[in-house]
């Protein structure tokens, strides 16, 4: 256990570069290969330490050094520039990760058997973010779920069912108000809390290649273009604003902690958040009975999809000198019993087909959408990071000026396109 203590201490003080320098060393034993495991998720450090212990016990010729860092996106770029890519890497699958994958710095898993064990819908979310041409550059590990969290006890007490259409959702909110119950616990003090509902509703308005068309239009994006925020998103914005009108008093100044605490104490029936919110909710009320349903935007309930992000994706250095050993560790990570335990601890959905979810009601409530492949990614991951979409959406929910918000998004898109699209040669 002494080696695990040392690793935890190294992670705690952030001595990452020093640890990276020893990657591949044998530690005095030429028969042992040391792998650097770059790990971004602080709350998963203990889970991965346990996995590493088990792996090393079964693979005495491999030593894993876990390096957990807070600012993972900055450090991984620094390491890539210095040509010191870690052997095995976990990252959050967002737009920044997609750009790195497109650059061809990660391994191509196209021909690896482990790829065949993963839910194709999860891999499609990653593909939408980006891969090098014709490659598969990462493996989705665990997914989150973004939808409407609801208190099942309140619904049962009030004789209410889960709404399957938008009209049913609004009728449900009106019924709750009539009975003196706040429909939604929300917050806007931190701008990111505006995004779960924007992603959940907007996903329906960005299907069928919306962002591909936006990228193709580039500087021509606008109200008269084949695709634009001004043209395609007015109804999505109106629906988001409609839901926030059913919030508790003072929600604009409320913090995320305020909103999760209010929901945990039964002060509202629902939250416009993702499954990640259940951790702070349960810290206040461990016995709460909560589940999730997707935003019921389509007229046909069968067309509903669950917005999900790949919370942890696994990859490896394209040119690691320890390819066989790194793949052995990755294959171990994806064994059903390993990923099931990790996902349960993190309240996430495992990516491996056939892997069982924990009995948490929230996870069980979203399981059918994963089983049926009815999942789609976060749309803000498709928006270039230079566009201040989070602030724009937050401001919209303050002033209810959708025209200004959508016009700003299109204007910012044009600016980014002007800087990033290479002019065609004559």
Summarize the structure in words.
- This protein has 426 residues and is an alpha/beta fold.
- Helix content is 44%, strand content 12%.
- The protein has 19 helices and 12 strands.
- The chain has a 6-stranded mixed beta sheet, sandwiched between helices. Strands 6-7-5-8 form a 4-stranded mixed beta sheet. Strands 9-12 form a two-stranded parallel sheet.
Element layout with pairings:
Blueprint: H1 2-13, H2 16-21, E1 33-39, H3 45-58, E2 62-68, H4 72-81, E3 88-91, H5 95-102, H6 120-129, E4 139-143, E5 146-151, H7 152-157, H8 166-178, E6 184-185, H9 195-202, H10 210-217, H11 229-232, H12 234-244, H13 256-264, E7 270-274, H14 278-284, E8 290-293, E9 306-307, E10 310-316, H15 323-333, H16 336-346, E11 349-350, H17 361-371, E12 375-376, H18 389-399, H19 402-420
Parallel strand pairs: 1-2, 1-3, 6-7, 9-12
Antiparallel strand pairs: 3-10, 4-10, 4-11, 5-7, 5-8
Helix pairs in contact: 5-6, 9-12, 13-14, 18-19
């Amino acid at each position: 256990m002494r080696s695990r203590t040392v690793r935890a201490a190294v992670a705690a003080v952030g001595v990452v570069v020093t640890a990276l320098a020893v990657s591949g060393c044998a530690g005095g034993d030429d028969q042992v290969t040391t792998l650097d495991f770059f790990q971004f998720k602080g709350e998963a450090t203990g889970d991965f330490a346990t996995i590493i212990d088990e792996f090393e016990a079964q693979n005495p010729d491999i030593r894993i050094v876990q390096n957990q860092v807070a600012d993972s996106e900055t450090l991984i770029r620094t390491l890539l520039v210095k040509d010191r890519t870690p052997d095995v890497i976990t990252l959050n699958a967002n737009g920044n990760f997609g750009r790195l994958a497109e650059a061809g710095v990660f391994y191509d898993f196209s021909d690896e058997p482990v790829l065949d064990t993963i839910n194709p819908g999860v891999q499609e979310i990653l593909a939408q973010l980006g891969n090098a041409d014709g490659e598969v550059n990462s493996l989705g590990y665990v997914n989150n779920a973004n939808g409407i969290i609801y208190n099942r006890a309140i619904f049962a007490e009030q004789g209410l069912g889960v709404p399957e259409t938008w009209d049913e959702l609004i009728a449900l909110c009106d019924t709750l108000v009539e009975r003196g119950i706040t429909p939604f616990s929300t917050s806007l003090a931190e701008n990111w809390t505006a995004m779960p509902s924007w992603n959940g509703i907007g996903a329906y308005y960005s299907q069928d290649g919306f962002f591909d068309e936006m990228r193709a239009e580039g500087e021509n994006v606008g109200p008269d273009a084949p695709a634009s925020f001004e043209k395609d998103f007015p109804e999505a914005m109106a629906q988001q604003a409609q839901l926030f009108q059913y919030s508790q008093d003072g929600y604009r100044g409320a913090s995320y902690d305020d909103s999760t605490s209010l929901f945990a104490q039964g002060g509202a029936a629902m939250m416009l958040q993702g499954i990640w919110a259940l951790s702070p909710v349960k810290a206040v009320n461990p016995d709460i009975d909560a589940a999730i349903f997707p935003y019921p935007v389509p007229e046909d309930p069968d067309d509903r999809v669950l917005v999900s992000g790949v919370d942890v994706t696994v990859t490896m250095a394209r040119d690691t000198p320890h390819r066989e050993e790194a793949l052995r560790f990755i294959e171990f990570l994806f064994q059903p019993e390993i990923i099931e335990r990790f996902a349960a601890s993190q309240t996430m959905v495992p990516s491996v087909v056939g892997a069982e979810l924990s009995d948490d009601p929230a996870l069980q409530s979203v399981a059918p959408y994963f089983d049926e492949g009815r999942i789609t990614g976060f749309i803000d991951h498709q928006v270039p990071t230079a566009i201040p979409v989070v602030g724009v959406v937050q401001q919209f929910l303050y002033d209810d000026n959708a025209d200004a918000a959508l016009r700003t998004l299109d204007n910012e898109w044009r600016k980014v396109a002007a800087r990033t699209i290479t002019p065609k040669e004559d």
